[in-house]
Amino acid sequence: MENQITNKKYCTGCGRELHASAKQCPNCGATQYVSGKKSKTTAGWLAFLIGGLGIHRFYLGQWIGVLYIIFCWTFIPAIIAFIEAIYFWTMSEEKFDQKYNQ
Fold first, then answer.
1. Cβ proximity of 28 and 48 under 8 Å
2. Inter-residue contact 84 to 56 (CB < 8 Å)
3. Could you state, in chain order, the average pLDDT of each consecutive group of 10 residues for the chain (102 residues)?
4. Which residues are paired to 18 by β-bridges?
């Protein structure tokens, strides 16, 4: 028999006990976030520090990072990555989750 404790989590909005697979709280309607998700802060820092190589795109699971590597000698990917870092940091958590944590 499966351990009942591992199938529970608590709502991020109201603190009520939920099933671990719940995406929304039936009590308050708060969206529940999945553990192991990609972080917008991490993506922003990767874009800011080594974005010219497209590492942040690989972190987000996007193979377009290959183009960053191919054109890194032009410094254009570094400029784009700097802008993307600011975009990631200013993006709301919900919008980031919808776009990158499917």
1. no
2. yes
3. 59 80 81 76 97 96 95 96 97 90 80
4. 9
